[in-house]
Structures are given as C-alpha cells and as structure tokens.
Amino acid sequence: MPTATLALRADQSGPVINRNIYGHFAEHLGRCIYEGLWVGPDSPIPNTRGIRHDVLAALKHLNIPVLRWPGGCFADEYHWKDGIGPRENRPSMINTHWGAVVENNHFGTHEFMDLVEQLGCEAYICGNVGSGSVQEMMEWVEYLTSDAQSPMANLRRANGRDAAWKVKYFGVGNESWGCGGNMRAEYYADQYRRYNTFVKNYQRDLPVYRIGCGANAFDYHWTEVMMREATPLMNGLSLHYYTLPKDDWFNKGSATEFAEDEWFTTLQKTLRMEELLTKHGAIMDKYDPQKKVGLIVDEWGTWYNVEPGTNPGFLYQQNTLRDAIVAGLNFHIFHAHADRVAMANIAQTVNVLQAMVLTDGAKMLLTPTYHVFEMFKVHHDATVLRTDLITPDYAFDGKHIPAVSASASRNQAGQVHLSLVNTHPHEAITITTTIAGHAAKSVSGRVLTADTMNARNTFDATAAIAPQSFDGAKLGGDTLTVTLPAKSVVVLAL
Ligand code: AHR
C-alpha cells in the first residue's frame, strides 16, 4: 500500500476560513429556481410561501452562508421591476440564455429575500450592467435597503414589505467579458466605476460589499486592469472557473459514463484552481498588498454534457463520487488561499451543474457533492493550521497528480479537524501524521466513498452513496495513522 506523511502543525495558525467559501449560487436557469427552490404557494408540494420544505431543510442543514442570485448570464437581462407586485400582473420575458423558455417573473425580489431569510443566510445580488441602466441598479439598491420615506422604499412597502432588507453583497454585472456584454477589461473597468458610484449605502451599519466582475479563468489581463483601475472602489473581485473533463464545450464529457481517463483529467483540471488563485492573487497583491479586496470565486464546479433527453439549455447533470472529490480538492485549495479568497459560490445549488440537490417533481435526492459540503461544515470560520504533506502521485497515461490532498483547521471551541482526499481510484494510502501543538485524545471521523468512480444517488436509491463512520484512523500519542480508502473524502475530528 502506498504511504504518505503529514506533519499537522497545530502550533502554526494561518488565516480564518471565511464561511462564505461554502457559498452558493442559484440562477433562473432550468429547474434551479422553478421546481428546485420555488414551487409556488398553491403547489401540492409542501412549501412555505412557495419555497419547498424538503429542499429548504436540506440546504439549512448545510448552514449555507450566502446565496448569489439571480444569475449568471440571466442577471444581465433581468429587470427587477418585472419581478415585484402581484404575481398575476408581472410581465413575462424570454430567458434567452437558458433554453429560450418564458420566465413569468413569479420568483422576484420579495421571493428571493424570503428564501434568504428562511435559509438564514446572507444575500448576494448581482445587478444588471449588460442591458440595464445605472438608474435601474440604483433604484434596486434603494428598494432593497432604504428605510427612508423615499419612492423606492415606499414602493416596497406598497408591495407588502415594510422594513428594509439586509443585503450585504452586491455584484456589479456578471461575466461582462462574455454574456454580460462582451466588454473589454478597459471598458468594463470604467463601467464598473460608473455603476458602482450609484450603488449607495442606505444603511450606515451595513455598507454594501461591492463585487466587481472578474476574470474568466486564465484571463490575467482582466484582473490586472480591474485592480489597476478600480481597487479603491471594490471590496471584492470575482473569478469564474469551471472543470470540464474534455477540452471541448460541445462535448464536455458525460457526468456518469466515464472511464479512468476522464476521472483523471477532471481531477487534474480541478487542481488548476491552485494556479489560478496563485496567479490572480499575485496580481491583486501588487495593487492591494494588504489584501483588502477579496477574491470571490462566485462560479466554480464541474460542467458536463446534460443528462440524455433533457433540455440542453437547462444544464441538468447527475453528480457522482467524482464530483465529491472535485469539491473536496477545491475546498482545500480555497483554504490554502484563505488570506485572499473571501467567498466562493458553487454553480449551482439545485438541478443545475454541480448541484447539492436534485429534484424530480415532489422527489428529492442529495448528491455526493452535498455530502462533502455537509462534512466540511466543521471548517466554517475555523483557523487554517499548517500541514506539510509528502504524498505519492496518482499516475495515469504518463501524467500525474498528487494522490493525497489535506487541510486542517481549528474551530473556535479549540477542536482540530483534518480533511483528506484520495484522488487515486484504485489504491488505498496509509498516511502517517505527526501532530504538534494539539494534544489529541481521541479521533473520530466520517468517510465518503463507494465501489465505483461513478457511484451516485438516484430517485430509486437515494442513499447509494452517503457518509459512513470511519474506523481507519488510529491515534498513538502524537502520531495518527490513517488508512485512506481509494477515491475517498475523509473528515476527522481530533
Ligand atoms: O452557471 C452557468 C453559467 O455559467 C452562468 O450563467 C454564467 O455566468 C457562466 O458562464
């Protein structure tokens, strides 16, 4: 059995892992909002004011810290005034990006803020720069957050909501380099400066955290220009990076029918998040050495071919053990860059791309990715601890990646948690860990794994893959020996 060594240096603390790294993203796309989150108050599916109970309960269990809405590409064609007032009077629109379906605007500002309040999380609203006006964006912020006797606050009151909402995060456009307007970095930087000027702080104790549209993956020029031109006007700058098994947007690879070559390339490409955070972070450091501007990875995750027979515009994909490994690897990379990464939002919460939850009418299942989010809750707001890892490689077809990935943190109660990922689909690995600076008296943990790389939950077998208690860790003094199963994610409490 291959072996790895790990020095867990609990005597050397790093930054705090912002709980927002475990954030989410829900767009008007396919069945994410409609059916996935919102079924309407008259639905036979149990709901509170239209928000379905089963999905809400599942998501609450994740302690979702922040939810981004309404898009994505949808955000730059969304006109918020179409989504307020009596639902039967709201105008429809065509959702041009996502299947050209008719959007009836029944889920709008009030419904989203109700969802956020029911979840108990922060709202992250993305404004429309691509096809919206400065005035429209300014009025939305007033409608949401002003308590004055002002036109927009009074319109909100007339629509049934007296008190201003708490909206902490506001994005000024989405993918302005692409679906949000095909702008050049230089042009968008000026647009950002202009639109942002009119995003006012109506609540003194809750200034808006302003997020500029950031780069598409490896576009470092975009980050350079934004940081050069707008650093003092931004609290956060976004970054989008999706993992595709193949280098072809027209044939990305199947979510479920794949061999080891696509297992390998998916994980190899996931690990490029490390390079992205390092290089974009280095540019940000040049203009912002104190790291005041957060890097906001507000779209990440796997992107496969849609499930056969489903609407190509709905981006509905299954979710397997491979996605769980992808989630674990990304979280470890975010932890390693927690001094700069202030938020990350997986795409997307329900029924779209790398989802937590899939629904089929009244039925619901939890995905392997959900289980990793749940197991990793222990890292929310915990302090990163240094880990020095020497790992064997997982080699395939002449290429190789590290077999083991590790991350440790100490929470506010002083408990230490160690999470481990084994990317190797065939080999268990023994990890000998020395612990310094923490007198561990016991170890317990859970593991997520399965016999096959493409193990998944279905509506007929909703618990085919779920976390199990883990007995592969043994503590002897300050040495911990872990037998990490092939293709697994493990979280240990020390
Ligand atoms: O998450 C799906 C889409 O991916 C988003 O709408 C867009 O921002 C990105 O290209």
Plain-language structure description:
The chain has ten helices and 26 strands. The protein has 494 residues and is α/β, with parallel strands linked by helices. A ten-stranded mixed β-sheet has the order 23-22-26-20-19-16-1-21-25-24, with helices on one face. An eight-stranded parallel beta barrel has the order 2-5-8-9-10-11-12-13, surrounded by six helices. Strands 3-4 form a two-stranded antiparallel ribbon. The protein is globular, with a radius of gyration of 22 Å. The relative contact order is 0.15. The mean pLDDT is 98.
What would a concise description of this structure say?
By secondary structure, the protein is of the alpha/beta class. Helices cover 23% and strands 29% of the residues.
List keywords for this structure.
494 residues; alpha/beta; 10-stranded mixed β-sheet; 8-stranded parallel beta barrel; 10 helices; 26 strands; globular; binds alpha-L-arabinofuranose
